[in-house]
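for the writeup, i need someone to sanity check this before i put it in the appendix. the sequnce is what the collaborator sent (i think, or maybe the updated version? ugh). structure was predicted straight from it, no edits. if anything looks off just tell me and ill rerun, i have time this weekend
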Amino acid sequence: VQLQASGGGLVQPGGSLRLSCAASGTIFSIFTMGWYRQAPGKQRELVARITSGGDRDYADSVKGRFTISRDNAKNTVYLQMNSLNPEDTAVYYCAQINSYGVSTWGQGTEVTVSS
């Protein structure tokens, strides 16, 4: 299984970014997929996840600003991030999740929110 994340970059406060994560070597549609992030000096935390049936949940810190979605035909999960603030600065990782937890991590894409 490989997860290839992309879409990170430098954005000003209040701006938007869309992260993508393309999966290969897996039956993508049957798995819950998630986005995690790790800021400097902090533990990795769950940002959002989406089940195979499309149910979503979010960290309180991003509710109303971030949206996770998936396209099973493209084996891709997305994270639309709006109203970004400096506290969102982190390396973002996509992950494939099974009943035991994260089974596969992507390589990470860096998001920097700064003026």
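The mean pLDDT is 96. The two ends are 37 Å apart (CA to CA).
thx in advance!!
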